[in-house]
Amino acid sequence: MARDATARLYDVDANLVVMDKQAGTITFRARKGRLVDLDKLHESVWATRLGDGTGMQLQWLEVTAQGVVAAADEEIRLKVPGSEQYFVLGDSDKAGETAPFRRLKEALARGEKVVSVTGRVDGWNGNWTQFLRKLPGKPRRLVVRDFQTAKP
Amino acid sequence: MKPFRSTLVLGVFLLAASVARGQVTGGILHVNNTHMS
Q: pTM for the whole thing?
């Protein structure tokens, strides 16, 4: 199994990278106390030259980010702790997928503290070769699919 | 590159991408699975 081989090679938590061939997904999570850098993720995938001649396509990248969510400059942002980096949180343009972002805004309006957001990274899709040529722009926009609030 | 090897290499590089100055705690890449089977 590729996943097991990966885990053996790097002497890591066996659950760190999970590949589901049937679903076409590769699930990853940061090592304890670390965060995954999307710039480096893009650079690393680019280095594999996976797009060349394979016809592979990235359907979407869904990530979970923790931080402080607040309104700023008419946007709702998730600020990454300990850095100047932030995500602009947004709504899906697909009917039926707008509820999570609406719920997030309602939670903020009630004064709840949103501490974690899961969403799809805007612009991270398409043909691998095309996608990997250039790092998508910043600030990154996350299409909200779920979020968590601080426990009272 | 063979599909199996491609996905293995991708997994390895995803793992190597974990660094201290990142932004996300984890994620899911969804790839068209014609090259993952």
A: 0.79
